[in-house]
Amino acid sequence: MRRSRPSGRHPGHAMGWRGLAAALVFALAASGPAAAQSLNLTGGGGDVPIEIFADDGIEWQQDNLVFLAKGNARAVRGGVTLLADQLTAFYAEKSDGTTDIYRLDADGKVRIKSANQTASAAKAVYDVTREILVLSGGTPKLVTSDTVITASEQLEYWEKRQMAVARGKAVAVRDDRRIKADVLAAFFKQARGGETKVYRVDAYDNVAVLTDQDRAFGGRGVYSVESGIATLTGSVRIERGKNELRGCKAEVNLNTGISKLFSCPGGRTEGVLQPRRDETN
User: Residues near 88 by Cβ (< 8 Å), separated by ≥ 6?
Assistant: First the structure.
């Protein structure tokens, strides 16, 4: 993340894409092992530098401490590629004469690709120090090897915590299973083959768990991918066809299709079951 302090002070300096690549390759190099399987382009360490290319060249705004790459901009580091209409790298000068890149912005048709994950949005911001990627604009989307997560407001990728947070009409889709909520938090782990997979999803406010047969609703939900069980709390409602059950807690097994409903303390569960009628009767 460091480079030598530039000599001289100028309001800005324009150079072709070859000059841009050379400047940012040196500026964004870091120490430690690179995290090739994640979407974290600038964090995670590694001596592998970032190479940046742009059709319309670059501006080096030395007074503003900014590098600006325009026109089909592309940043590549290890197994991660970032594509956007424009890339902006912000750096800070240190007292020892070095500089640190602390933020990288991507604007316009943003796409981020790694070995087994992709993300897209209209805008992306990397917080290099905290190793957090924030996607916003359009419909932010994160695609892993087994799950697709979307949001209407923003989607955050927290590298150190190995989690993604989707805000605003958030949806997580896995096979025929769909989890909706105002906010979703998905937690990842690496499988034996190196793939990054979701092992748990926490859902907050206006939660809905939907399959081809059942619909379950609640105020809070926790879905364990390995067990296939979604636990819902807070004014829970389970629907299948015209049948409906109500209670305070439910365990919905999405693998077996069996649901358990629990009553509120001192209360009871309620249900409306519609009998099947023979069409000739």
Answer: 66, 67, 68, 69, 104, 105, 106, 107
The structure tokens listed for 252 are: 């919905």
pLDDT in tens, 188-242: 988 777 678 899 999 999 999 999 888 999 999 999 999 999 999 988 999 988 8
Q: Can you say whether the dihedral through the CA atoms of 222, 225, 226, 232 is positive or negative?
A: positive
Which residues form the domain of 84? 1-133
In the structure, what pLDDT confidence band is assigned to residue 3 with cuts at 50, 70 and 90?
very low
**pLDDT tops 90 at residue 20:** no
Residue listed under structure tokens 């879905």: 223
CA angle 44, 164, 109 (to 5 degrees): 85
Confirm if 162 and 156 have CB atoms less than 8 A apart. no
pLDDT at 149: 97
Distances in whole angstroms, Cα of residue 162 to Cα of each of 79, 165, 277: 18, 10, 51
The per-residue pLDDT for range 23-53, each reduced to its tens digit, is 455 344 443 444 445 676 654 455 667 788 8
Number of domains forming the structure of the chain: 1
In a domain, 142, yes or no: no
Assess if residue 243 is contained within a domain. Answer: no
Cβ partners under 8 Å of residue 239, min gap 6: 214, 215, 216, 217, 245
Percent helix, strand, coil in the chain, to 5, is 5, 60, 40
Closest CA to 22 of 44, 61, 54, 51: 51
